């Protein structure tokens, strides 16, 4: 098949063959293919027989190894995909649940056309995969505490509006301690069940702008994006008492508390972090965007843009709404549109989400569905995966730091290192993250990213055998680790001393800023610790070689 690397197909004999696909259009196709070869994976697929010992476990294991690589993203490849020594464990919760569901989908497709002889074999694989998904879900279940005295009248009205408009809703909205409002499963939901299904008539899309009187003014603005048009439409529609979406707007908070609303104390707290620059740039961008539009729109078209609806504060509110609640949806015409999805906005983000595959309108039903990739028990909070975002991004545009170890909390590096022979890596940029996430802390690895270490080694001696225990290489290892210690020691100094806010009740934004800054300290501290441990290990190896040589 053109453009696709095929990993087999079904055959009609006692031996069964299941296939997975790695698309050549994948941005990291070559790297993934190389990694599969390093791990000894068969590009023809996975054969299995029911007569083989432990055939179910072995078949699922082999399929998962392929699926994990297929679903690795750039960060996962950078830290875990650069050599064949990485253990065959999952590299992130996101990757694992996608891999499990990918293999389940392949088995389900095979069942549709399987011969009677093979249905039992495939069903056995399916049962094992469902069991694995349940085990994974149970292992990563997040306990919650509901706030009983919270008034959910606006949220209930929104759900009633949804049901009235033919939405299928298996969720309720509740206030959750430490998280605010969230969606709770009203039934036991299994893999593939639909937690929420909304007809497209309930979705806020750019078509609403084109149906309004705003378009006659906005279409004259050259280069105005659909996002900006929708933002302006939202600012006015919020106050429309006869709006189709009144229940939705009534359910929205008065403030969103994202990084875009950080006050001066929180900004000062972020001194020494990249998040400070990120938030300041975002604020400056919004201010410039607002000044380009107002007050001219209000002055020239006060009937369409009433000044009281288009203040700076209202503009920031609308921006925070769209940044934190919008989704890009693919419609039946193939076009991707930014949209607001009522009710779905109450699905909170998690590093262990139940819903990972969404964002495409079902042509048959003309609706948007949110199917589960792992089970969610009745009374459990149902989570959505917002994307592969760092905590700095989540703070700036969503207003929270996720629970648990976020594999996307990376610190980008700007190393201007040239090699003597002009060789170049497949990585044009480099990064680090907490070394506690690494599976390999042995010599030549230290819990640090292999591409970064190889870059620094090659700058010193591009012809050396990097991972050979010879004195020349070990001396280079010490130099590399010393350089990294110096670099990150400076970063730690820039963060300043650990700050303990002495106020009894620090504001929400200061709390969030302190949480982020302490996270940065934790990451840098882990790198310094790994460098120090690595230096001790290398020094010990040099001592052993010296004894042998003497």
TrEMBL record:
<keyword id="KW-0808">Transferase</keyword>
<keyword id="KW-0489">Methyltransferase</keyword>
<dbReference type="InterPro" id="IPR046341">
    <property type="entry name" value="SET_dom_sf"/>
</dbReference>
<dbReference type="GO" id="GO:0016279">
    <property type="term" value="F:protein-lysine N-methyltransferase activity"/>
</dbReference>
<dbReference type="InterPro" id="IPR036464">
    <property type="entry name" value="Rubisco_LSMT_subst-bd_sf"/>
</dbReference>
<protein>
    <recommendedName>
        <fullName>SET domain-containing protein</fullName>
    </recommendedName>
</protein>
<keyword id="KW-0949">S-adenosyl-L-methionine</keyword>
<dbReference type="InterPro" id="IPR050600">
    <property type="entry name" value="SETD3_SETD6_MTase"/>
</dbReference>
<dbReference type="GO" id="GO:0032259">
    <property type="term" value="P:methylation"/>
</dbReference>
């Amino acid at each position: 098949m053109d453009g696709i690397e095929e990993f087999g197909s079904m055959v009609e004999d006692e031996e069964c063959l299941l296939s997975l696909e790695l698309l050549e259009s994948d941005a990291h196709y070559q790297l993934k293919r190389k990694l599969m070869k390093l791990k000894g994976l068969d590009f023809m697929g996975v054969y299995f027989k029911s007569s083989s010992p432990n055939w179910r476990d072995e078949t699922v294991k082999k399929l998962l190894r392929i699926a994990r690589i297929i679903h690795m993203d750039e960060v996962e490849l950078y830290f875990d995909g650069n050599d064949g020594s990485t253990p065959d464990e999952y590299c992130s919760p996101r990757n694992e649940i996608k891999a499990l569901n990918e293999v389940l989908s392949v088995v389900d497709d095979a069942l549709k056309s399987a011969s009677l002889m093979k249905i039992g074999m495939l069903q056995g694989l399916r049962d094992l995969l469902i069991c694995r998904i349940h085990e994974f879900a149970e292992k990563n279940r997040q306990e919650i505490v509901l706030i009983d005295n919270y008034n959910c009248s606006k949220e209930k009205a929104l759900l009633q509006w949804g049901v009235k408009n033919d939405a299928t809703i298996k969720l309720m909205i509740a206030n959750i301690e430490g998280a605010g409002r969230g969606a709770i499963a009203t039934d036991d939901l299994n893999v593939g069940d639909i937690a929420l299904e909304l007809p497209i008539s309930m979705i806020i899309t750019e078509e609403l702008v084109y149906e309004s009187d705003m378009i006659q003014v906005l279409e004259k603005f050259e280069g105005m994006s659909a996002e900006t048009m929708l933002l302006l439409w939202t600012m006015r529609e919020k106050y429309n008492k006869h709006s189709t979406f009144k229940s939705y707007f009534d359910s929205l908070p008065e403030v969103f508390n994202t990084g875009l609303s950080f006050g001066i104390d929180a900004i000062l707290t972020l001194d020494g972090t990249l998040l400070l620059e990120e938030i300041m740039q975002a604020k400056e961008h919004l201010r410039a965007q607002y000044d380009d539009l107002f007050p001219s729109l209000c002055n020239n078209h006060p009937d369409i843009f009433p000044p009281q609806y288009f203040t700076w504060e209202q503009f920031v509110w609308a921006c925070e709404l769209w940044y934190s609640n919008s989704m890009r949806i693919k419609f039946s015409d193939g076009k991707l549109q930014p949209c607001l999805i009522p009710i779905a906005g109450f699905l909170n983000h998690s590093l262990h989400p139940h819903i990972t595959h969404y964002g495409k309108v079902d042509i048959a039903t003309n609706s948007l569905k949110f199917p589960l990739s792992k089970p969610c028990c009745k009374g459990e909070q149902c989570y959505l995966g917002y994307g592969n975002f760092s905590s700095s991004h989540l703070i700036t545009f969503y207003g929270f730091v996720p629970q648990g170890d976020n594999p996307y909390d990376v610190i980008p590096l700007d190393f201007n290192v040239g090699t003597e022979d002009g060789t170049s890596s497949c990585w044009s940029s480099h990064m680090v993250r907490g070394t506690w996430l690494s599976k390999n802390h042995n010599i030549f690895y230290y819990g640090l990213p292999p591409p970064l270490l190889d870059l620094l080694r090659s700058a010193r001696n591009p012809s050396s055998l990097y991972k050979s225990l010879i004195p020349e290489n070990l001396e280079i290892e010490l130099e590399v680790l010393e350089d990294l210690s110096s670099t990150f020691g400076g970063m730690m100094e820039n963060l300043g001393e650990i700050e303990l806010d002495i106020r009894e009740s620090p504001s929400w934004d200061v709390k969030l800023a302190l949480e982020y800054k302490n996270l940065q300290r934790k990451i840098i501290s882990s790198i310094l610790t790994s460098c120090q441990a690595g230096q001790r290990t290398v020094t010990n190896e040099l001592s052993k070689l010296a004894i042998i040589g003497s």
